[in-house]
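Data deposition worksheet. Section B asks for the primary sequence of the deposited chain exactly as it was used as input, without tags or linkers unless they were present during the calculation. Section C holds the resulting structure in token form. Section D is free text for depositor observations; keep each observation to a single sentence. Incomplete worksheets are returned to the depositor.
Section A, Depositor: J.P.
Section B:
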Amino acid sequence: MTKSVAIIGGGPAGLMAAEVISACGVSVALYDAMPSVGRKFLMAGKGGLNITHTEPFEQFISRYGKQKKEIEKWLMDFSPDTLLEWVHGLGIETFVGTSGRVFPRCMNGSPLLRAWLKRLNTAGVQFHLRHTWIGWDETSRRGRSPCVSPKTSPCAIDRRASVERSD
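Section C:
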């Protein structure tokens, strides 16, 4: 039996979860209430998508104040340099602004999002748009929607996701 996961939400975190999980050979179904994914990502990039900063790591991490120790652990696994490698791996050229911030050459997030979605499609991620998560269904193996198969478990939680088509 092939392992499968349902991801609820098509924002940057959901898309990254889909990429990481699908790279492990797990079948991924991503559900989102909107008609397209990454909408807030595009809005964040309207004035120029600030990808990261080029300052030395110690200076960069010091900006997180009281949360520095916790966030430093995360950034050791996915550093600003790793993020830039990931962006360049999508074929997106970047430049460093006078502030030291790194931006896509085109100054917006659309090409990056398109390249990312192409990568996810190639990896076999299935997108289910205009679906609303309505909670956990403890009573049925199939949930409340025929879109969620009995073998799909949300993110390592031993329950079934219930989603309804919202159109």
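Section D:
The chain has six helices and nine strands.
Helices lie at 12-23, 39-44, 57-62, 68-77, 80-89, 110-122.
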